[in-house]
Design brief:
6 helices, Alpha-Beta Plaits, elongated, about 20% helix, 3 domains, Structural Genomics Hypothetical 15.5 Kd Protein In mrcA-pckA Intergenic Region, Chain A
Length: about 240
């Protein structure tokens, strides 16, 4: 996630300070400062991770890349854009709607919980790569209680027709067994639902609560989001052996 210096006008546009034309006018009129000094050259190089950049006296929340933790609500697509439905990018506050934002991985439309949005493609690729060992943890509400036999089947991996799943951990969360936690070491389409279906159970609701060792912020209501800390981004790769 190392940064390189970029043109000031490009950095301002990427951080939603205005269009290219508007940003140019702000710079020429002396309304932009870098580290406390007025800058009037749009082509001046700046470091988004280190330089303090202000527009009209207000510091921009800078950074070459954004890493957003969202509590995804039900009924929203894990996509950057869709002409027919609301996407998770549509839920972002205006200040974080920079070009190139996308969900790192996906949750089904009716699945809720922890989703990371970023504009850092290398970060997303690393997080999703199997060799990075970034587990995904879910809580599932079921129509029937889980059994010891179900746990064993998860632990051995399952033949789901188009692929054989890796072994996964599953255990009941509630005493009656109607809510279970699942730890996946991969992320196939509808995988949790399909694994429970293979055990004769229907998933009534599914929520992702953790990615790697980072848990979703319990203060985030459905649809809300916040920037991830540098420590949280680093903790995602505690088990990265690449």
């Amino acid at each position: 996630m190392a940064a390189k210096k970029e043109r000031l006008d490009r950095v301002l546009v990427l951080n939603c300070a205005g269009s290219r034309k508007q940003v140019g006018q702000l710079i020429r009129s002396g309304q932009v400062t870098v580290n406390g000094l007025v800058v009037r050259r749009a082509e001046q190089k700046v470091d988004p991770d280190c330089d303090q950049i202000c527009v009209k006296g207000t510091q921009l929340p800078m950074g070459r890349y954004l890493y957003i933790m969202m509590n995804k609500p039900e009924g929203v697509l894990s996509a950057s854009r869709d002409p027919r439905a609301m996407t998770v990018v549509d839920l972002l506050p205006e200040k974080w709607r920079r070009p190139g934002m996308f969900p790192a991985g996906r949750l089904d439309k009716d699945t809720t919980g922890f989703l990371i949005l970023t504009d850092d493609g290398a970060f997303a690729h690393r997080m999703l790569a199997p060799r990075s060992h970034v587990d995904k943890v879910y809580e599932a509400e079921l129509d029937k209680p889980v059994t010891r036999e179900d746990q064993d089947r998860f632990a051995k991996g399952m033949d789901l027709g188009d692929f054989i799943s890796l072994p996964a951990e599953m255990e009941p969360v509630t005493p009656d067994g109607y809510v279970a936690q699942v730890i996946l070491h991969e992320g196939k389409f509808h995988q949790v639902k399909r694994m429970f279906e293979n055990c004769g159970k229907i998933v009534l609701s599914l929520r992702r609560i953790r990615i790697g060792v980072v848990e979703i912020d319990k203060n985030l209501a459905p649809g809300e989001c916040r920037e991830m800390t540098k420590e949280e981004c680093e903790q995602l790769f505690l088990h990265d052996f690449c």
